[in-house]
Design goal:
alpha+beta, three-stranded antiparallel sheet, about 20% helix, GGCT-like, transferase, AIG2-like_dom
Length: about 140
C-alpha cells in the first residue's frame, strides 16, 4: 500500500474558497494552517499558482489529511481539478512531494503540493503578478 500523504492547499481549495465545499468539506480528518517555504505565489486568472523559487517568501495554506478510505478517490479528483496528468506537458500543475511547515509547532511534514508546471512557471515569472505575503486569501 502506497503512503497516503496529506495535501497542502493554498488557493481555491482552502476553506471559503470556490472549490472547498465541492471537494473537501466533510471529506477531511483535519486541516491545519501551514506554510510552503521556497516558493512564490502568483495570481493566475481565477486561481493561484505556487512557483518554486529558492529563497522565495513562502506560500500560506492548510495542511489537509484525508481518511484512508476516501484517499484514492480524492487524489484522482484533485488531479483532475488541477489539470495534472503525470508526464503530460500540457498539465497546468505538477503534483510534487514537498516539506511543509505546520504553523502550530513548526514541524515539517511531507505533503502533496500542486505547483505550477514548468511552462506555466516560466510564463508567470516573466509576466505574472506576485501575491505579496504568499496568501491567496489576501487577494479576495
Amino acid at each position: 500500500m502506497r503512503e497516503q500523504l496529506p495535501f497542502f492547499v493554498y488557493g481555491t481549495l482552502r476553506p471559503g474558497g470556490r472549490y472547498h465545499d465541492a471537494y473537501l468539506r466533510g471529506r477531511t480528518r483535519s486541516a491545519h494552517p501551514a506554510r510552503l517555504a521556497g516558493a512564490v505565489l502568483y495570481d493566475g486568472p481565477g486561481y493561484p499558482y505556487a512557483v518554486e523559487e529558492p529563497g522565495g517568501g513562502g506560500v500560506r495554506g492548510e495542511l489537509v489529511t484525508v481518511p484512508v478510505d476516501a484517499y484514492d478517490e480524492l487524489l484522482a479528483e484533485l488531479d483532475r481539478l488541477e489539470e495534472y496528468v503525470p508526464g503530460d506537458p500540457r498539465s497546468l500543475y505538477l503534483r510534487v512531494e514537498r516539506e511543509v511547515g505546520r504553523d502550530a509547532d513548526g514541524a515539517a511534514v511531507r505533503a502533496w503540493v500542486y505547483v505550477a508546471a514548468p511552462a506555466v512557471a516560466e510564463r508567470l515569472r516573466a509576466d505574472g503578478r506576485i501575491v505579496e505575503g504568499g496568501d491567496w486569501r489576501a487577494c479576495g
